[in-house]
Design brief:
The complex is a heterodimer of chains A (456) and B (488). Chain A is α/β, with parallel strands linked by helices. Chain A is built from 18 helices and 7 strands. Chain A has 3 domains: 134 residues; 134 residues, no CATH class; 148 residues, Ribonuclease Inhibitor (Leucine-rich repeat, LRR (right-handed beta-alpha superhelix)). Chain B is built from 11 helices and 18 strands. In chain B, strand 3 and strand 4 form a beta hairpin. In chain B, helix 6 runs antiparallel to helix 7 and helix 9 packs parallel to helix 10. Classes of the chains: A alpha/beta (456), B alpha/beta (488).
Amino acid sequence: MQEVPDLYMFFGRFHPLFVHLPIGILVFALIFQIYLKWKPNDALHAVLPIVWGLAALSAVLSALSGYILSLGGGYSEEILSLHKIGGITLSILSICCFILSFYRMPWLASYRNITQKIVLSSIAVILLLTGHWGGTLTHGNDYLMEFSPFVVTDSSSTVEHVSRISSLDSADIFKDAVQPIFQSKCVSCHNVEKKKGGLLLTSYEEMLAGGKTKAGIIPGNTATSEIFRRITLPTNHKEFMPADGKKPLTENQVAILEWWIDQGAQRNMMISSMKPNKHIQDLFSDFFQLGRDAILSYVAKPASSEALSNLLKAGFQVHAISESNNLLEVKYTGPSTEKLNLSLLESIREQLVWLQLINCGVTDEDLKIIGGLSNLYKLNLNRNKLTAGGLNELIRLPKVEYLNLYGTSVTDSSINQLVTLPKLKKLYVWESRVDSLGVESAKRLNQRVDIVYRLN
Amino acid sequence: MTYPKHPIQRPVSRREMLDICKCGFGSVAMVSLFGSLLPSCSSATGGKDELMNHLTRGSTAPGFIPKAKNIIFLYMDGGVSQVDSFDPKPRLAKENGLDPSTLFKVDATQFNNVGKILKSPWSFSKHGESGMDVSELFPHIATCVDDMALIRSMVSNFPEHTNANYFLHTGSGLQGRPSMGAWVNYGLGSENNNLPGYVLLDGGLIPPGGLDNFKNGFLPAAFQSSILHTGAEPIANIKPIDSIAGIQEEKLAFLKRRDKTLLSSLGAADEVESAISNYEMAYKMQSSIPELTDFKEESEATKKLYGLDSQDPHTRSYGAQCLMARRLVERGVRFIELTCPSVGNGADRWDQHVNLKLGHESNAHAVDQPIAGLLKDLKLRGLLDETLVVWSGEFGRTPFAQGEDGRDHNPSAFSMWMAGGGVKGGTIFGTTDDYGYRVVDNPVTIHDLHATMLHLLGVDHKQLTFRFGGRDFRLTDVHGNVVKDILA
């Protein structure tokens, strides 16, 4: 690899910035040209040279900076050369269009139509291809199609694997855990096309071999394994990986790699045969998302800000359950004198998983609305004037795990109904009309439900 | 000395500009880390807009769903003896009166007045479906064992109260770090705008180390604890002095205007900002505190459950504090700590260097029924699912006597328990040796305890940081592992 002066390289690094200018301007110029064809307009035609001029200038700048960037190396030769040819061709064609748009020579007029058509359509095609090659160079081969619904994802995709493992006994340490981790966090830069730092992380041998500086993984020794050192540095360290602010490995992923290396970095071994202790088993259960609460895997679209502001204006407390899943808790604690507008809750039906309306005058009528909030997993209606008739509406809640009805007029027959809720785990009916006989019969119907109704 | 009538107005300096912006950036980062709004750096438009911004902005940071929303920390000041409460050691009875140095290596203790092996004056029996051993010191708590996760393998770094208290409360043995209650509120914010997010219910004894156990340290001053005392007036000046309506509001508005003018001439100053918000909070508390401390809506049965009808004035006093804790939880206060009552009888807290039997019995009698009442009441109301109750002292006591009938400090092993939100009831974690002197299996440090408490609140203890003095600080410093075995 040849040495590139720092100042050149500095300019070259601007390529990702410049490169978007010609893309935008060229697309605009193409549309503009077609429009003029359709509705000729002399005034607009005078602008054409400016548009093509800008397109040509930006294309040349991009091509220049791109060329300098490519001298730094680290990219797949094959795609790089295609990208290079595409970039240079685009620059030349843009300059041609610039010239064509300028001169309105009569002798050219008879040829212009056909020349223009050829040039314009080539620009469109080459622009598309060059852009795609550029994207492949930066983000890796399968970046575009990884989440495409039209392609069967290949077997190393993380998403695929995580859902496929149904128990730890059927999981292979390398194929099911280690490789998917590398695949999701490392391979976009360390692949055949884009071998950053001379390091490839697409296969077992390559991981061990490492890159330009050191061996990647020393089995049984995390301290001297360069890859492990890099992923466990402080995130602001300049040698930290993944670099450039890409998403770091999670604590769980690091812990799994650590254990794998400590255990001798096995290539083919079932996790269960490596005798993991309880802690390690938990790590893998988390990784494969085994035995998690239903609520943990539910992710909703963000609620509309209008719906939220209406709720806040109406005096409801609204809390985000956690930052990553858009789920919401809504709380209202009485005593309140005014009637609550519960229909506001319907606008966040998808996000609302926890509802607490405490001692605030909720009536049987309101339960019709609450019964339709199908994503609730915790519902607290204690100290409201509710009767058996209204509570039957709650039978429609498919996900509810926690139901708090203490201080209401819930009866034995309603709890016999309520315990049939498919997910119910806890039912609170203290200070109601429920007695021990009712609880006995409810427990016979569903032993899974913990019914709290008196001091024990 | 004369004061200028109008503080000098001057343009914002570059430094202040950066400072102001930093707060903005900081809060954006924080909001992406935690599932709730940050009360710090709040804009003039107030909390709701901020919540809106937070709720509606997309975020990619990893996070998890909290099991608990509030913590009640039952602080057992002085150090409960583990071998007399939750960690039975039959060998002490067999070898009662032997010289401990002939049996095992004895570390230096605070008073180094090492006596003989001292058997527990109380007998143990098994309780609940889990069959957890509890001594007769705690007959009421013993009825709640199936909701409790007991850790018998706690270790501390300090054999002396002051350092050990700082360590338990702030994660550092030295004075000046933020208390865990302050960290929790810094991370999650408060759900109640009319009450402080970190409340200390002062039972009568302020622990060694003083109020620095409950301070905000380098965190913004609004996160320090507010102390509610027992008795008729829990906070000084809780009744407005002005008899004419409106006068107090006018005075406060005037004060606020002056403070804002001062603030604009000073630039960002946490002291002034916190003072402004504290005045506002104090005004709101003049109505929220009387409502909080008025137990008239509590039924007689509930009061009885907490021991408010007890013959023992200390049980009544601690019972009222426990009932208050439940009421605070209902009002969305994040972190509530209870300190112990002063039981007299020559028993200074749980710190029985002499007269173990009388001292531990007096202390246990004061707290046993109220704590059990709190657990049962929380459970009846469905609140135990979202409230984490933590019971712990700062260290344990020696299995051998200090002098004739006391026990000295022992940081090498002690017992604590948690109950409620996200905790696996009926669990026993960790083991000590045959004397209950040292931990032999699964030691749990104070940092581990803090990490676990934060975990149950949905906060990753490694992500909860505050930059001060040139580096990022955490409650758990560079330590701490979540004790997963006690989690449900």
